[in-house]
Amino acid sequence: MPLFAKPWKLSLGFIFGGILVLAGFVIQVVCGPVRWESMSSPVNLILLVVFLAFLVIAFALRHKVGFFGWLGSPSAAVPSIACTLLMTIVMGLTAQIPERGWLGNMITFWPFVLCYVWLTTVVGLVAINHLLRVCHSWKEIPALLNHLGLFVTLVCATLGSVDKQTLEMTLNEGGVETVGVSEDGRKVETGLSVQLNDFVMETYPNGMPKRFASDVVVRGKSGHDIPGVIEVNKPMEVDGWKMYQYDYDSEAGVESKISVLQLVKDPWLPFVYAGIFMMLAGAFLMMFFGFKKEESK
């Protein structure tokens, strides 16, 4: 009997998970950790298209290829969740410090990444199944929203993470700055022109900072000057950049003429939010339909 012939059992999924983890260890030893930085745009977009094409082909051939049929079954779903959850627990229990080795940087650890891909594949196939079934029954909508939302969130949070930019911009009162500095020290043109009009600090009677903020004027792609005040936990957003109050000249204190902003740009974040919203909507509809069913009884 072929390995992936029906009837499928949960034991098959856990065996597959063990093989996947072992394969991850081998890849880690031979090739080193996952290099996410090499997957920035447009590479991540190409990977997304290839992955979606694979899901469509796998779903279309699910009745002809035993492995593809098994991937979308509960006997694959439960072990994939268990393996990914176990890896996530390990990640939560270990300090994520890259210098401490493999377990100190789980997001680049091949066994973790492969389990994550396995789970995402299963969720994607189940979402396609619900998408086709919703044409015959609207009662499939909650399950579709849950699985499709989870799929969108997993994929966009992963592939989009490499396109996220975090920069520091140092401003001097009266001066204009257009360049930010990345975590690795690279200077990056932001496309913004930020002028610091005034740095304001309020202190407690003991001299401890109570509030500090930057009164700025920002010019983006539109060419218009946009005035604003940036405070801690009150960022300003222009052209996809969120600007946070980050630091100042601590030696000068209230007399500081320098403000340091943190600029964050994450182009995939709206899609992650969309996925989360779909999951919330699916959960709400499940509760709503459940209440309706109880009322009818």
Uncertain stretches:
none
Q: Give the integer mean of the pLDDT values.
A: 91
**Number of alpha- plus pi-helical segments:** 7
Structural shape: elongated
Describe the overall structure.
- It contains seven helices and eight strands.
- α4 packs antiparallel against α5.
- The chain has 297 residues and is α+β, with helices and mostly antiparallel strands.
- It folds into two domains: 10-163 and 270-296, no CATH class; 165-265, Tick-borne Encephalitis virus Glycoprotein, domain 1.
- A hairpin with a 5-residue loop joins β3 and β4 (209-219).
- The relative contact order is 0.11.
- It has a four-stranded antiparallel β-sheet with strand order 1-8-7-6, with no helix packed on it.
- The chain is elongated, with a radius of gyration of 25 Å.
- The chain has helices spanning 10-31, 43-60, 66-71, 74-93, 110-133, 141-159, 269-296; strands at residues 165-172, 176-181, 187-203, 209-219, 225-231, 236-238, 241-248, 258-265.
